[in-house]
User: Fold this.
Amino acid sequence: MTQINQDQTSDLFAVRREKLEELRARGIEPYGGRFLRTHHAREIVDNFSELEGQEVAVAGRITGKRSHGKACFADLLDFSGRIQLYARLNDLGEQDYELFTELDIGDIIGVHGKVFRTRRQEISIAVNSFEILAKSLRPLPEKWHGLKDVDLRYRQRYLDLIVNPGVKDVFLTRIKIIATIRRFLEERGFLEVETPMMHPIPGGAAARPFVTHHNALDMDLYLRIAPELYLKRLLVGGFEKVFELNRSFRNEGISTKHNPEFTMLELYQAYADYRDMMEITEQLISTVVREVLGTTKVVYGDVELDFSPPWQRMTMLEAVAKFTGEDFGHFDPEKARQQAEKLGVEVPADASWGITLNEVFESLVEEHLIQPTFITGHPVDVSPLAKRNKENPLLTDRFELFIMSWEIANAFSELNDPLDQRERFQRQLEKRKQGDEEAHMLDEDFLTALEYGMPPAGGLGIGIDRLVMILTNSPSIRDVILFPTMRPR
Assistant:
């Protein structure tokens, strides 16, 4: 806000505070209690023919008010929508009518009245009685301009939800997406489980964790960066189909696609592999799009995305060759580094073939993957938890799903060889000693679990926030998280 707006707000706050005291002096409690509603606004509008002339009770926030002598119109907003109130001096009496006209924009009231249609054909409620349920001390943002300050919208989401109707629709869509995901998985025999959010060792993904301290145990704990290793422990214990819609945390940068706290779906299925996960991913997301949005074609920005199966599939080698013209299928580290240099991609002088290929892919190929596309055949160097490919041990049985050039899902045939897993953890540990804070730590308990025997399995992770962004045409991840992480003012 400008300084003038701040001053105006302070003046209005003072005026409303005086009104509050006046109400109490008159014996009126400005913060009421229980109010029994019979209907929501939308129900009355949708069922007018049945409710016309009937007495109803509604409650909500005043968002507009227009006085005309002995009559006053007001707009009442509840969760379902808006309905007009019509208050008359003859119906309420002088004292209550005066009180109604003194209501402020933002006040929350409960109303009893009869449903009717005005001469202008607007469905309304003729107020017989009302009570103040919550006096608003701060003015809402100006009606015709809404809440345009993006930073303020995220910081004060409650105001954003009141004055920008489309915002509520985004979050209602998010709720439907998550409910549809749950139903889809439960219908296929997956069990929803809960695993710890505080880990003694960060693992399950290459990321920098948040660190906290438990006083009673006198030990550091890490907010989870992924639930993967605990969900795999459940496979060892005999659970064959599990999923968790989880909050995870990564102590990394903030951008339009990254929030330190985010929502993921992770699921694991025993006796399956990455191909089964690919089928589940395609079926799951296309089902969500169709059931929630009523179509398989979604507009994001100026692009129309088609979620009709089957989706495009390419290996990483094929995608790099297609979009750069360079063939990395020789598996030679030195030659790969030379090719990367030719393409303008910087890699360390000792980068392996797999690291180099992945850098080229991320730098030059991802931006071309607009329609839903599965990329398979990731190098083992960047896939420490995935099973090696039988035909080529330098590659893994893994895929990533890209939409609008963003990674939306990651899945693989899970590594269940405890000796191979220990070796890969050791290599990650070396990276960590060299300063890579995102490298995995050695999880001895997880290795012990693998040594008891984990069935072959497929695992899948889907970024829920990014998926919701695409399905609601939202440009920033903060638009789809009710209370995103913000720097203090």
About this structure: The first strand starts at residue 55 and ends at 68.
